[in-house]
Structure formats: structure tokens, C-alpha cells
Specification:
Rossmann fold, seven-stranded mixed β-sheet, alpha/beta
């Protein structure tokens, strides 16, 4: 702005004399007016915050006000002196020969009239055009300033309203945060109460289950011979009917949350599928996983207690034999079959029949998964396998793979689960000057995997 004022001052000094008006560079004033116009237009398109800061400083500053006054004066001066005249009073600074000098100037002026007058006429036409342009630009600038002033007032009013709204919303947010904090405390308290009630409910369910088992045992005829009872158990898959398996599993299987988290590894094989069957579902951890992911599923178990427990959890469990349940299903109808910790309870012929029925009942592109203790890890014999009296014998992973391929499955893979690994490894030897150190450590690693590898494996077969 200060530079523009200096330019206008220099122009003003030049145009004070009519003789020099034709030499004024009108581009200075045009540039100044155009710059002011462009700046006003850009300012209108800026954001609210920038408009308030920049525009308020621009219109309220003393320098801008003074520049506007000087500009208005120069515009008025241009309107008065824009026209040039060839004839004007002649003067001389030498009094003695003043008359002679003036006479010579008149002669010269007369002689050059026909050369100079066309130039003056052309200059006058330019001056008229330039002055009209300056006037139009100045009027436009005034209109823009007036419009911008109105917009600035409106913007200030809007911003004041927005600031009031923001303050109110800030106060409301603080109030909501306080309410959320109090609600979170209440929710935490309710969660603790629910956890306690769930534990108490599970304990009561265990007590009811044990009471039912005692009633069953009380109704068993004591006169049945040992040989007759042994023969009945041999023909009946539920040979451990005197075991409260619900209580047993709660004691040794692990928490439902841990089991469901481990089984989440198999979820990818069932995504996008429906009508899943969980054979030997137990407490229904896998059924809960299916429910959480919007996959329809039903569980089958021979123990009645699991049916009632499934109703409490909101999952569907039917009582029955796994093999018989598969026989009753339609061919090519199931979207997937899951069978965890079951085959170690079955005889070889039962396992092979389940594999064949699984291939028959599954849709094309669906999978069956068998999870069972891994006999390749010796730790299962000291940890969990013989802890369950209903276990018959472990099944080798290659045997399960063979059964499934014989049943017709083409894509069969074995997965040694990471979550079942024993959290220990034999330390390797770290020594120098040992000729067979690498061979020794390889042997230690092999023994470590044999003793402390994955205690469970899963075999996945797709139809």
C-alpha cells in the first residue's frame, strides 16, 4: 500500500503541469486500482477467520484511509486536467529580450502546429480513455468496499453466533463427559456383579448336574452282574454315564473364553458359510464363536447337561450320538463340520464312519475340521490325555489324514496348533571348540519338539 501511494505521489507531481500531462504513465494508477480490486475479490473468497483478521485490519488502518483520500483527490485532479492544449501562454526568463524570445517561440509553435497537434489529439484521446477507466475502476472499488463491509459485518455476526454455539456445545460436551464417566463407573459395577452371578450360576449348574447324576446312580439296579454291565458298556457309546462330564470339563478343559480364543484360529474356514455342525460340542465354545460372526450352527453332544447349558447361552445344542446325527442329515447340505476333542473317545471304525459321512453330507467347497491330542508330542501323556478316563487312545495325524483321503477328500492339511504348545524348550548348548555343536543342538531341538511341541493338532479336509 505504501509503495502504491509513493507511485501516485510521483504521478501527481508530474501531472501538476499541463505540459507534462502527456508524459504521465497511467499504468501506475491502473495497476494500483486493479490490485485493490483483486485484493478485495480474493478477500471475499477466503475463509471466515482469514476474512475477519485481514479485512478488519485493512479497513480500519489509518494508512488505508489516508491512501483512499489521496486516491480520490488524484482521480478528481485527473478529471480536471486530462485534456492537453497546444496553445497556451508563452513565457521567458530573460527580461531584456523577453519580447524577441516570445516572438520566436510563437513562430516555432506556428511552424510545428501541423506536426504536434495530431500527437496532442491522440494523447487527449488516450487521456480521456484512461481517465474514464480510472473512474470506472474507482467506482467499482468503492462498490466492492461497501459490499465487503456489509459482508464483514454479517460475518462478524455469524462468527459471534458460532462462538456462542461452540461455547454452549462445549458446556454440553463437558456435561455429557461427566455423565459418561458416572455411567462407566455404574457399568463397571454391573459388570462385576454379572461376573459374580455368572460364576455363581455355573456353580449352581454344576451342583444341579451332580444332583442329577446322583439320582441316576440311585436308580441303577445294584443286582446287575459285572459281566452284564461290561457287555452293555461295550455296545453303548456312552460307556461313562456315571461321570459328571460337565463338572469334569469345567475342572480340566479350561475356561470357555480361552477355548473360544484358541478355536478362533479355525474361523477362516467357515466364514461365508451357513448350517455348520459341531460334533461333540461340549459347552458350546465353537457355537458361540459362530453366533458372534453371524453363522448358523448347531451342536451335538450325548450329555443332556450341555443341552440345558446351551439354552442358557443362547446356542442350539441337541442331545444325541454324533454318528447317528450325521446319518440323519441330507446329502450335500452342510456348510461345514467341526469336531474338537472327540475322535480320541471313538473306536477306529467310528472315526472312519464319521469321515465318510462328513464327505457325504458336506456341500462342495466346504470343510471338516478334526482337533485332537497330538501323539507326536510326548507331553500329552503326562499332562492331559490320561486325565480323562473316557479317552480310548490318541490318533496319529497321518492316520487321520489317511482316513479322510480314503473318504474322498482331496485337500487335506495338518495344522499343529501354536496355542497348545508347552511353554518350554530345552536350552541349546552355547560353547566354543565343540566339533559337533550344530549336530548336538539339532538333536536337542528334535527332542525338545518331541517333548514340548504342540499338544493338539487339527486336520482340515475340504470337499
Amino acid at each position: 500500500m505504501e509503495k502504491a501511494i509513493e507511485k501516485i505521489k510521483s504521478i501527481s507531481e508530474e501531472i501538476n503541469s499541463p505540459l507534462n500531462l502527456g508524459q504521465v504513465n497511467g499504468q501506475y494508477i491502473a495497476d494500483y486500482l486493479l490490485d485493490r480490486s483483486n485484493n478485495q475479490t480474493k478477500s471475499r473468497n477466503s475463509s471466515f477467520q482469514k476474512t475477519i483478521k485481514n479485512s478488519t485490519a485493512q479497513f480500519n488502518s489509518v494508512n488505508d484511509i489516508q491512501a483512499d483520500i489521496k486516491l480520490q483527490q488524484m482521480i478528481e485532479q485527473n478529471n480536471q486536467i486530462y485534456e492537453l492544449h497546444y496553445y497556451h501562454d508563452l513565457v521567458s526568463s530573460i527580461p531584456v529580450i523577453r519580447g524577441i524570445i516570445i516572438f520566436i517561440k510563437k513562430v516555432i509553435r506556428r511552424a510545428f502546429f501541423f506536426l504536434i497537434q495530431p500527437i496532442i489529439d491522440e494523447q487527449n484521446r488516450f487521456n480521456i480513455s484512461a481517465t474514464q477507466s480510472f473512474n470506472e475502476l474507482y467506482n467499482k472499488l468503492c462498490r466492492l468496499e461497501e459490499s465487503h463491509g456489509n459482508e464483514l459485518k454479517y460475518t462478524n455476526n455469524v462468527m459471534e453466533g458460532l462462538q456462542d454455539n461452540i461455547q454452549k456445545q462445549y458446556e454440553e460436551i463437558n456435561s455429557i463427559n461427566k455423565m459418561l464417566f458416572e455411567s462407566r463407573k455404574e457399568i463397571d459395577g454391573l459388570q462385576k456383579e454379572m461376573d459374580g452371578l455368572q460364576t455363581e450360576s455355573r456353580s449352581q449348574f454344576d451342583s444341579i448336574s451332580r444332583l442329577k447324576m446322583k439320582i441316576k446312580n440311585a436308580n441303577i439296579e445294584k443286582t446287575i452282574s459285572v459281566n452284564t454291565e461290561a457287555e452293555k458298556q461295550q455296545n453303548n457309546p456312552n460307556v461313562y454315564q456315571n461321570i459328571d462330564y460337565f463338572s469334569f470339563e469345567n475342572s480340566f478343559r479350561g475356561s470357555e473364553e480361552d477355548i473360544q480364543r484358541q478355536q478362533n484360529e479355525y474361523l477362516k474356514f467357515f466364514l461365508g458359510k451357513q448350517n455348520i455342525v459341531d460334533l461333540g460340542c461340549g459347552r458350546g465354545e465353537f457355537l458361540s464363536l459362530m453366533k458372534e460372526n453371524g453363522i448358523s450352527a448347531v451342536g451335538v453332544d450325548i450329555y443332556e447337561e450341555y443341552v440345558e447349558y446351551g439354552e442358557e447361552k443362547g446356542v442350539k445344542i441337541v442331545q444325541g450320538d454324533a454318528v447317528e446325527f450325521l446319518r440323519q442329515q441330507n446329502a450335500d447340505d452342510l456348510g461345514g463340520i467341526f469336531c474338537a476333542q472327540l475322535v480320541e473317545h471313538l473306536k477306529p471304525e467310528q472315526i472312519m464312519e464319521i469321515c465318510s459321512l462328513s464327505y457325504e453330507k458336506l456341500k462342495k467347497g466346504s470343510c471338516v475340521i478334526f482337533e485332537t491330542p497330538n501323539p507326536c508330542c510326548l507331553a500329552i501323556y503326562t499332562n492331559a490325555f490320561y486325565m480323562d478316563p473316557s479317552h480310548i487312545k490318541p490318533v496319529h495325524p497321518e492316520t487321520m489324514k489317511y482316513y479322510l483321503k480314503q473318504a474322498g477328500f482331496y485337500d487335506v492339511q495338518i495344522i499343529f496348533t501354536e496355542s497348545s504348545k508347552v511353554p518350554y524348550q530345552l536350552p541349546l548348548l552355547n560353547a566354543s571348540h565343540v566339533s559337533n555343536l550344530e549336530e548336538f543342538n539339532s538333536g536337542i531341538q528334535l527332542v525338545s519338539n518331541l517333548l514340548f511341541g504342540s499338544q493338539d493338532y487339527a486336520v482340515v479336509a475340504c470337499k
